[in-house]
Amino acid sequence: MIYDPSSTAVIVFFLFVGFTVGLSFYLGSKAKSSAGYFAAHGQIPWFINGVAFAGDYLSAASFLGICGMIAAYGYDGFLYSIGYLAGWIVALFVIAEPMKRLGKFTFADALDAKFDSPGIKAAAGISTLVVSVFYLIPQMVGAGVLIQPLLGFPHWVGVVLVGCVVITIVVTAGMVSTTWVQFLKGSLLVVFSTVLVVLVLQQGFHTDRTAFETIGPLELTTAEGNGGSPSPQAIAAAAGRSLYVDQSDAGLSAPWDQASQYIRFASREDAGYDVFRIEQSDDGIRLRQAQAVTETAGGEKFVGGLPFGAGEGERSLRPVGHLTELPAEYAADETTSEPTSESASTGPLGPIEFFDVLRRSEVTLWGSEKLVQNDAATTTVYFQKPTSGSKVLRPGEHPTFAGIRSGRWTDRINFLSLMLALFCGTASLPHILIRYYTVKDAAAARKSTIVGIASIGFFYVLTLYLGLGAMVSGTLDVTNSNMAAPLLARGISDLLFAIISAIAFTTVLGTVSGLILASSGAVAHDLLGGVMGIQFSEGNQVRVAKVAAVVVGAISIALGILFQNLNVSYLVGWAFSIAASANLPALVMLLFWPRTTAAGIIASVVVGMFSSLGWILLSADTYSKVYGLDPASSPIPFSQPGIVTIPLALLTLVIVSLLTGNSRPKTESDVEMGTKLA
Amino acid sequence: MADRLVHAGISASRAGHSLKGLQNTAQRHLRCLFTRPAKLGRSEDEPFAGLPGRADNAREYLKPAQPQFDNSPALASKRVANTLVMRSCMLRTSNIRRSNIACFFWESSDVTEPVNAPAAPSSVSPLGLTLFVIYTLLYLGFVLLNAFATETMDMVVVAGLNLAIVYGFGLIIAAIVMAFIYGFALRGDTGSHPAADDKGESA
């Protein structure tokens, strides 16, 4: 699709960014000390901190990724919403208050509170860095994806822009400005998503069968063709169209000769072709219009045989996402009044009715297929998949989750493993954990977690409406589902699109600044201060942390550009698995098992981190998506590591602690007493 | 002797530094501490006898920790311990019975588990754990149904909604409701140590 950057969008966007950066500079004057830089002096009110939790947590993966996944496949994306929220239960009931009591600035503080061991600081600091970087890459990639349609800049400009803005935010005022940016973003995100959902419900559903052509059913006898299917000529004749003849010398037609499931007709409007997918059914042959993009080895892009673009003699991909059939009670008006009428609508719908109507309707989803040619030109064909509404409201349609319907045990375990990682991952994400130190006491930590759960939970309820609304909005980009929510807004109003896009952008800002702050704390406080024993003065510590923030920011900019083609939510899944395996077993056992030793914790963090990382790097998913190798050659039976590596880390902790069990840790009351009275 | 003493601590009052409060908390924590009177002093009446130079020289330990950035809990707790030893010394001169003040020492060489040590340093409230278990079971049910009885998710349960939607929304709403229940139940709690409080009250 071609996006025209609208001036409203640009203005709203720069207002947002300008305001956030201005706020950072204003708050910067208040955060000169380490306590101010890392933990905002513990003076953030619990309500603000709670909304900031939402701002921190609802990353690009939540807003763009989940909505996009729901828009493209239905309910499956919502499984992520459920898993991400369930993780907060672990955070509230198990982690929140002890975290606040035990630590000071970073997650490593809490883990190390009873031991004072440089080894723990090193392990926890490194795991913080690894998880943060894995989490940062998708955020940066998301920023690039977002800036392209919004401002018309290339991908790398988006990444650099986000990187620079975030570094400014973090360097000026550390946790104070980060918190306020996240608070702002969290509340705007929830408020405007609500507005969007209300508008979607107000609009209701309407059918659109004219957006893409369907020819047929055509009655053809198979005897005319070869291999049991009719010849293209016969189909063309029956459809009243003429076959497309490739006149260019680019040799782009070769792969089509093998792809008998598609047929190309000469376009009636321009020199290009219209591609149709041939579907055999009992009552004859149906031709459903598809869209094709060809990319040559030289990087030239063609759509339907014409150069990609919006000008004369050029073509671009058309927006997709339609509802093709409504339940009988709504469709009835259409058939009785005028049979040729192609549109029926429901009018405003209630929040429950919305699902009921959709379940009984039919929507058109889009699939894709790659046709590869010898000279490395690749054609991607996007084709219509009429799908019953009941299918988009149940799990198991997305490739990641399709396994639960395959009946294979490994696929089911893979699903369980992913859901376990989501459940355990939240409470071990370093950028979430550091937010417990910005409030004054354990009670405030608890209250802000409750506010966080309420706002995040409410937002996740909205994701299903947003995603399904986008699915039938007729505005989706067939090549990239990540833009579903902003494009849904564009279908309603340009201003709303501008606001939602700007919020999506601040979503990236909020999460990235939290992550960079967590990483800079890990470097300055845990690794340099705690492990290497470098004693900084108050001001120097902050300076070192700021330098670390700039370095981590620069690295993430580079990685964001490097990995621009990797799937966003896929990488977030990695971060969750690593965090859940490396951090959670150590944290939970420290709180509940008095015989935990320093060596046990170090071993658990290291084993959890490396086993999950190794598992991911050797998994079939990574083989096919990252290395481009045959997924069947992967030595790992299923892709999600959590179900193996979390218990493994736990077991390691228990065994090592039992073996090294003669160094008794201080009881928590000692530690608590120390922190309170210090 | 001095190098063998790796830690000195005393129970402190969270509620404030009033003498009464200090006494009460000291008693409460006494049970989880252990002393080694044979090495540390002649009798309980001389709780500081084990310190080098006895109480007069406790000043050695009273030096405030070096001002430095790393205000880690471990360092802080050592400093607090020192401060409290000093406080105890001052109390000795008053009319308050010394036995009400507990201080404890242990040596790095042969530490054994204290007989009356708390079973686990858990500080999670029982209500929190109960809610956590309930939610985990709910979530587990959802995940297992999805994995092993996927078709049940298609079942229309109520008002045209299938089980996938009802259970999914149910989990989100349950999380929010449980969070509020928890917050409401602990609304008077200021974030102190619930486990220690319970023990203190029952003592």
UniProtKB/TrEMBL annotation, chain A:
Q: Which PROSITE patterns match?
A: NA_SOLUT_SYMP_3
Disulfide bond is among the record's keywords: no
Pfam families noted in UniProt: SSF
Q: Name one GO molecular function term.
A: symporter activity
Main location (coarse class): membrane
- Matching Gene3D superfamilies: Sodium/glucose cotransporter
Q: Which UniProt keywords apply?
A: Cell membrane, Membrane, Symport, Transmembrane, Transmembrane helix, Transport
| Spans traversing the lipid bilayer | 6-27, 47-72, 78-96, 122-147, 153-176, 188-205, 415-438, 450-476, 496-523, 544-563, 569-592, 599-618, 638-659
Q: How does it sit in the membrane?
A: Multi-pass membrane protein
Q: Where in the cell is it found?
A: Cell membrane
UniProt similarity note = Belongs to the sodium:solute symporter (SSF) (TC 2.A.21) family.
Name of the protein this chain belongs to: Cation/acetate symporter ActP
Q: What taxonomic classification does the UniProt entry list for its organism?
A: Bacteria, Pseudomonadati, Planctomycetota, Planctomycetia, Pirellulales
TrEMBL record, chain B:
Note the Pfam families from the entry: DUF485
Keywords (A to Z) from UniProt: Membrane, Transmembrane, Transmembrane helix
Top-level taxon of origin:
Bacteria
Ranges annotated as spanning the membrane: 127-149, 161-185
Q: What is this protein called?
A: DUF485 domain-containing protein
Organism this protein belongs to: Allorhodopirellula solitaria
**What is the taxonomic lineage of the source species?**
Bacteria, Pseudomonadati, Planctomycetota, Planctomycetia, Pirellulales
